[in-house]
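Crash report, auto-generated. Payload:
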Amino acid sequence: MFPRQSQTESARRVDWLSVSYLLGALLLCYYLLPFVSLVTSQPLGVVAQRLTSPTVLSAASTSLTSSAASTAIAAGLGLPLAYWLARTEGPKQTLATAVVVLPLVLPPIVSGMLLLTIVGPETLLGRLAAENGIALTRSTAGIVLAQTFVASPFVVITAKAAFEAVDPALESASQSLGKSRLTTVRRITLPIAWPGILAGITLAFARAIGEFGATIMLAYYPRTMPVQIWVSFTTLGLDNAFPVAVVLVGIAVVTLVVLNTLGSNPFE
Amino acid sequence: MLELTNLSKTYTAFEFGPLDLTVGDEVLSVLGPSGSGKSTLLSLIAGIVDPDGGSISLHGRRLDGRPIADRETGLVFQDGALFPHLTARENIAYAATDAARVDELAATFEIADLLDRQPSTLSGGERQRVALARTLAAEPRALLLDEPLSSLDTSIRRRLRSELHALFVDLDIPVIYVTHDQRTATALGDRLAVIRDGAVEQIDVPSRVLSRPETRFVASFTGTENVLPATVTDSVDGTTVRIGEFALRSTETVGTPTGSTVTACIHPTRVGVHAAGGVDTEATNTLTGTVDQWLNEGTEYRVLVSVAGLGKPLVATVRPAAVEGLSTEPGSTVGLTIPPEAIHLLPR
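Recovered output after restart:
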């Protein structure tokens, strides 16, 4: 009697877990459908033709190299900052974290405007660099500066969380075994935090390769893929922009797959 | 020899020290409640925390101011702190100078068959064995253990405690073993320091700390549950004190005048429990009371006995073998005997 009653009750009960999965699946579809729609709507021949176009190839090359450079800079400078933030407490840490988050909450075009006040052609830094043969705007360097500004917080914030998850006792244990702080970070902290750090690097690269607002303020030329898509759209219309967008989506997907295969620990 | 001189550290809500402590090639158990400063003591010695004042030296070499890696103090954490991305072998090899040493330590700690396993697949006891092997692989000149047995099951704790005892006998280096477990502290320590609010309350051989606590805190923390206010009535050949309506003899001399107030400390293990008619009620330090509670604690019984006119119930422990012939029903009458040498008197 009792089990039958129980089964009936459970059958009547709403399975909230399944409902929540359904809601999640809905969001997943919302992400996926535009991609499928874009890719299937574009004739393969047109996409292939765009792929061999010197303008698109140049934009793709600029995007890839600048994104790789800005991600490398974000990792190189962001990881030490993330580690310091993770292992420090107090008002300094809170303030520094707020500063790191600032580029994330600014509209990218405003970020570009802010950067122009520092590295623009009429600024002290801009003039000094130009005198030494380095253009900080309308150059690959300008693109990298813009991408680093908007993308590096992803490395810092994600790596900070990853470092915080590493028990400080492990670092103390390592050091008490005679290992230096540097060796401890290299052999203990980084390998344990690596999945989180890789997630941050992936996010930063994805943000960099898709960067448009700050880039267009600092470096309209050389064109990155997003700028090229915008130019195609404004000069030749949406139909001309779509195939270039497919190329960018392809590059982004391949890049994410490559970064994910790096998920195995390079420090071991 | 490990020497701490005037060592101090101030936190917002806690002050440690100033502390003077010398540990030779021996095991010093440090016993104290949570928040008493036990872990701070180890952190200061190991270099995890910098002191505000004082000095630390190991075999004549100043440690304070040196980085953790340059202190040669092996640290064993409560949960082992094994590196989760390395196997047990890699954990030990991380500290060892050669592979042969790893196998040698694995044999010592009986973990040879666990060496290729990840820490997450090891039991609590196995993890601590690996952690100990790893710490000793670095050949430390002092060993600091922060409650390494506290999270283990009773049976595993007993076994590992026994193994640690054997290990410590062979180690000719200063060992500080921090714990809040009195049994572990007394079992492993050549000396026992009871710590409270960042200061050492008493330091001595364990048997003396247990039988002759110098403060009420040490008495209660080391298991002397019977702490009673008493008045000195006679100081010839020991001391006679009045506790409630009873005059009890102690072999101790407190040096305070007749009429002064003292605290009588009686460890539960020293209170004899007998059948009602089994004691001479006229004999010295003999009382009669009624049982309030019998609690079976496995290895012994804990008995709470109310004695009319004493002021508060007495706690006694009885070995299972000694329970036969005693009525364990609450309300039943029992006789109690307290040897004069078991009554420890503290000035109030």
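Post-recovery validation: Chain A touches chain B at residues 167, 169-170, 172-181, 187-188, 191-192, 265, 268 (CB under 8 Å).
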